[in-house]
């Protein structure tokens, strides 16, 4: 199977095309492959990416040599767990430039996220990586939402306020697929009244979507509840959550309570509520399908490790620490050890899609901080409200 995948990739190269870009543009087709065919395809992409970074990145090659791993060490899909990982904390270091596999002059975009420590994680992307992100995320949006028109209420700050924030980059990519949109957090304030007014203005004209961190959607719902108001969004509407389920206070929000509140006050059905998972440091994005199963982008691989022995993978269905193998990362090695505990859902997908599906469980117990973009927005809103109340 791997030999066939290698021949297919070589054919793409012989045409002068990029196997990564062709794959990112073929999300639907990759999900339709058999499990073994998709694994073979991913293996070839990931091994080739590993070889590129091994050859181009002096720092990373040193990490590999210390682990006694070279490209020839990776011969089968099971060998992927040998690829040395970069802890996500290294993207926060003052020396994070060492992670670059391309010259600094090749960097087109810097994306940042900041958790509870206040130290930004900086992900630098060259032109090819930016291309890959745009192709990969928009193809995932098309696969799971089928959106090409409509209106979206973004309950988050607009790009002009914080253009470097990863969460805002995600909203920007979706906004280009719509007829119209509105950002509802401006200069540190959120108006639920204006949000309701905007949704009412769009009624009957567009399919109305809401994209936001869960805590902000719950703020909007709290306003509806207090004012004894409920609305009914459209049959093609989506509630899309980004940024995670933990408040800046450390409180973990309940997905069940959230879904029930959305159904009651926003007039949607459960299958219209879709959560996403992604990291600023990675280009691999995951989205809930119509059955609430979160699918990993088909070119990437999620390797779930034993937290006490990181060289060991745990069986599907068991929780472990997530490592992401991302062949779309051209600027830095895309082999990232996260601080998230997840599990791979065993068995076949209810939707018939091939590939991995995950369930997010919690932050790793020894993590030094939690959260990123959404936590920052949450904290700033609460601090601004406290200042306004005191004045």
**DSSP summary: helix tally:** 11
Overall form: globular
Mind summarizing the main beta sheet?
13 strands, mixed
Give the overall pLDDT as a whole number.
90
Share in helix: 25-40%
Q: Structural class, from secondary structure content?
A: alpha/beta
State the CATH architecture of the largest domain.
3-Layer(aba) Sandwich
What would the keywords be for this entry?
391 residues, alpha/beta, Rossmann fold, 2 domains, 13-stranded mixed beta sheet, 11 helices, 21% strand, globular
Would you write up a description of this structure?
The structure is a single chain. Helix 4 crosses helix 5 (58-66) and helix 9 (214-226) crosses helix 10 (255-266). Strand 13 and strand 14 form a beta hairpin. The mean pLDDT is 90. The strands form 3 sheets. Strands 1, 4, 5, 8, 9, 10, 11, 12, 13, 14, 15, 16 and 17 form a 13-stranded mixed beta sheet that branches. Strands 2-3 form a two-stranded antiparallel sheet. It has a two-stranded antiparallel ribbon with strand order 6-7. It is globular, with a radius of gyration of 21 Å. It has helices at 2-14, 19-24, 27-31, 35-56, 58-66, 127-145, 166-175, 192-202, 214-226, 255-266, 373-390, and strands spanning 86-87, 107-114, 120-126, 151-154, 180-183, 185-186, 189-190, 208-212, 239-241, 273-277, 286-288, 294-296, 301-306, 309-313, 320-325, 335-344, 357-363. The chain has 391 residues and is α/β, with parallel strands linked by helices. The chain folds into 2 domains: 2-106 and 294-363, Rossmann fold; 131-291 and 370-390, Rossmann fold. The protein has 11 helices and 17 strands.
